[in-house]
UniProtKB/TrEMBL annotation:
CDD domains: Agmatinase_PAH. It comes from the Bacteria. Belongs to the arginase family. Agmatinase subfamily. GO terms for molecular function: agmatinase activity. Its EC number is 3.5.3.11. This is Agmatinase. Keywords: Hydrolase, Metal-binding. It comes from Tabrizicola soli. PANTHER family: ARGINASE/AGMATINASE (PTHR11358), GUANIDINO ACID HYDROLASE, MITOCHONDRIAL (PTHR11358:SF26).
Length: 321
């Protein structure tokens, strides 16, 4: 949307009729839709839906990620004025992207949450759109993967995290952010041979065949080596990218429930995401942003940048198909 057009509009998150284009509204005012995209439940012609899942009842320690989607959206209003840096294309101009709003669920019926989320994502996928989800704690990835596997079969996963989330847990009724990938592998949603974790720096006894590029390897061997290894692992098959913000070092992202020192620097994460261009990314999420533990807003800003890079990866995958 041109600047002169924006001057005649009132809060284009609601009033714009063309879902493509940059946005030039004031960052400090208006609705905080992600990247100033249109708020709508109409999936007609939509390529990608951004949706929030304000759920944090699966955390092992500090709650607060339920406020993540709102904070990430607010931080994203700093970004929609320019094409994404380092990319040869501009998804905001070339794709129909909407903000689908947050998942509605009964916080007091936690046992109903997984299927509610799976149905939410299933609705979007059946309309022909992909998703980038704003969490929420990392448990949310498990129900999301279930919806994706229904259409794509077992997925390859690129998992940025300090933790493997592979701790043993064979009780599917348990809702735990530390076991989401264990459940996804054990139930056949994820192909471990085509999955890789980047940034790990906590101990896990059994990785169930999932490949690991720990934080030290990224630091010592470099981003290029890590990305080349990850691309080789996932190959050309359908791949889901999940980014736990605690993959970043606490100095860059203190606002998270389980921070661990020695993590990736923000420039390393940015370079990894951009250099992953070419993978067959079908969807992704950014999770564990917990605003109460970061009064500066830096963690939410990092989360918004991650989400934008996921959009770019999704768009690039579409252009290569």
């Amino acid at each position: 949307m041109a600047l002169e057009d924006a001057k005649t509009q009132v809060d284009t998150a609601f009033t714009r009729t063309d879902r493509r284009g940059l946005s030039f509204e004031n960052a400090f005012g208006g609705a905080t839709s992600f990247l100033r995209r249109t708020y709508t439940k109409d999936l007609t012609g939509v390529d990608l839906a951004i949706t929030g899942v304000p759920f944090d009842q699966a955390v092992t320690h500090r709650a607060g990620a339920r406020f993540g989607p709102r904070a990430i959206r607010e931080a994203s209003t700093l970004q929609p004025y320019d094409p994404p840096y380092g990319w040869p294309t501009n998804p905001l101009e070339e794709m129909s992207i909407i903000d689908y709003g947050d998942l509605a669920f009964d916080y007091a019926k936690v046992s109903d949450f997984p299927e509610t989320l799976t149905a939410h994502i299933r609705t979007i996928l059946k309309a022909g759109a992909g998703t980038v989800t704003l969490g929420g704690d990392h448990y949310i990835t498990f129900p999301i993967l279930k919806a994706y596997a229904e259409t794509s079969g077992p997925l390859g996963v690129i998992h940025f995290d300090a933790h493997s989330d592979l701790w043993p847990d064979d009780d599917l009724s348990r809702i735990d952010h530390g076991t989401m990938l264990y459940k996804a592998v054990k139930t056949g949603l994820v192909d471990p041979k085509r999955s890789v974790q980047i940034g790990i720096r906590t101990t896990t006894e059994d990785y169930l065949g999932v490949h690991v590029i720990d934080a030290r390897e990224v630091h010592e061997k470099g981003v290029a080596a890590a990305v080349a290894k990850a691309k080789d692992i996932v190959g050309d098959g359908a791949t889901y990218v999940t980014f736990d913000i605690d993959c970043l070092d606490p100095s860059a992202a203190p606002g998270t429930g389980t921070p661990v020192w020695g993590g990736l620097h923000s420039w390393q994460a940015a370079a990894c995401l951009r250099d992953l261009a070419g993978i067959n990314m079908v969807g992704g999420d950014i999770v564990e942003v917990s605003p109460p533990y970061d009064s500066t807003g830096a963690t939410a800003i990092a989360g918004a940048h991650v989400a934008y890079e996921l959009i770019c990866l999704y768009h690039w995958a579409r252009t290569q198909r």
